[in-house]
Amino acid sequence: MSGLPTTVLAVWILCATGWGVILAGLRRGLHGPSRGPALFAHTVTPAAVVLTFSLVGFGSLYAMIALTAEWWALALVTGLRPERLLATGGLRRLAAWGVLTAAATLAAERLIL
């Protein structure tokens, strides 16, 4: 891919796949008035995070590593049903999601960077 390191390409592919997994879970599981805003927020998240990281001075690779860890941790903690984060066992799942995301981000950054 014209000089792009394989690990960077893998992070981008895993990030896009994780984003799609969560999007599918939101589309399948959310109903009612909260569905539209949740889908919109999820749709604009990648661009907003990359722009924020770029403005702060970090590169987009840091953002993609963090987003990849976040989305795959969410899929793992909620069993591919993101609406469970708020519906049942909210605080325990939220804490597990945060811990798993932090650990995966730290591990991935040490492996990749």
Description of the molecule:
This protein is mainly α. Helices cover 81% and strands 0% of the residues. The protein has five helices and no strands. The chain has helices spanning 6-29, 35-56, 60-78, 84-87, 90-112. α1 (6-29) runs antiparallel to α2 (35-56) and α2 (35-56) packs antiparallel against α3 (60-78). The mean pLDDT is 90.
Brief sketch in words of this structure:
By secondary structure, the chain is mainly alpha-helical. Helices cover about 80% and strands about 0% of the residues. The radius of gyration is 15 Å and the shape is globular.
Strand and helix map with partners:
Layout lengths: L5 H24 L5 H22 L3 H19 L5 H4 L2 H23 L1
The tally of strands reads 0
Strand fraction band?
under 5%
The low-confidence runs, each spanning 5 or more residues with pLDDT under 50, are none
Sheet with most strands: none
Q: What is the H/E string? A: HHHHH
- Overall pLDDT score: 90
The helix tally amounts to 5
Shape: globular
Oligomer: single chain
* Share in helix: over 70%
User: For the CA atoms, what is the radius of gyration?
Assistant: 15 Å
Q: Structural class from helices and strands?
A: mainly alpha
| Separation, N- and C-terminal Cα atoms | 19 Å
